[in-house]
Amino acid sequence: MSAAPARTPGTAAAPTVGPVPAVDAVPLSRRTALALALTSVVGLLAFGWPLLVGATSALAAGTQAPLVLGVVLVGVLAVFLVAVNDGGIDVKAIAMLGLLSAVGAVLRPLAAGTGGVETVFVVMLLGGRVFGPGFGFVLGSTTMVASALLTGGVGPWLPFQMLGASWLGLGAGLLPRRLRGRGELAALAAYGAVAAVLYGVAMNLSFWPFQLGAGTGLSFEAGAPLAENLSRFALYSVTTSLGWDLGRAVTTAMGVALLGRPVLAALRRASVRAAFGPASAHPA
């Protein structure tokens, strides 16, 4: 029976080859998950109020609703970010978040506005996929803020864009972790296409009541039956933005298909090197 080969002192053992473990760069503790759920519920109400509001509501009668709801969304997003910070987000995760947000902020003005092209969604999808749902949610918000500051796109619509993008990144992180290879890319591309269309629908819903005014067949009518307003909104979305939404969906899916494999591999190598974890877990 031969003895095991001796290892030179001071040298590390060769790493074992195996699947890359799942990484949650932003830990979702119970408190953080509760803040995330609260943020999402408030966000759904902020987006969907035109389908629920009565004819005598103050929101139905005024044009200040986007500003009011935007302030509310900023507040709940701030609560979530505080909860994330209390949960012990790693300094290296913050650095990665800043890097990907900067990349997205630079990419967005280079493509957005041409046939619905929105390459920034590819960054959010791949980041959320590798680093987990919490990271994907925060990445969506920070990327939209960074791009708005870069292009001067700050306005009452920004909180809605932040939350829509955050949900997109969150969903990418919630896809089954066991998927790898072509199956992973196919699932991520399909999800990205659907999420890109839903993002456009959500943005339409946020400003539909104020864009057309009253008196048209596409206009929002406060207090009307839900089915009637849904019909008006569907017709409005199809006639005004469906082409842009489909362009965004195709661009997102193609971006994931073309860039997904090398970018996922690079991000996973970075996650292994960073060994993400709570700050308290790493000695100073």
The class by helix and strand makeup works out as: mainly alpha
Number of strands: 0
Count of DSSP-assigned helices: 10
**Mean pLDDT over all positions:** 79
Instruction: Give the topology string: H per helix, E per strand.
Output: HHHHHHHHHH
What is the strand content?
A: under 5%
Strand count, sense and barrel status of the largest sheet are: none
Rg of Cα set: 22 Å
* Spatial gap, N to C terminus: 45 Å
Shape: globular
Uncertain stretches of 5 or more adjacent residues: 4-20, 277-284
User: Which percent bin holds the helix content?
Assistant: 55-70%
Give a quick precis of the structure.
This protein is an all-alpha fold and 284 residues long. The protein has helices spanning 30-48, 58-61, 65-86, 91-111, 120-131, 133-151, 158-174, 181-211, 226-240, 242-274. The chain is globular and about 60 Å long.
Give your account of this protein's structure.
The protein is built from ten helices and no strands. The chain is an all-alpha fold and 284 residues long. It has helices at 30-48, 58-61, 65-86, 91-111, 120-131, 133-151, 158-174, 181-211, 226-240, 242-274. The radius of gyration is 22 Å and the shape is globular.
Which key phrases capture this entry?
mainly alpha; 68% helix; 284 residues
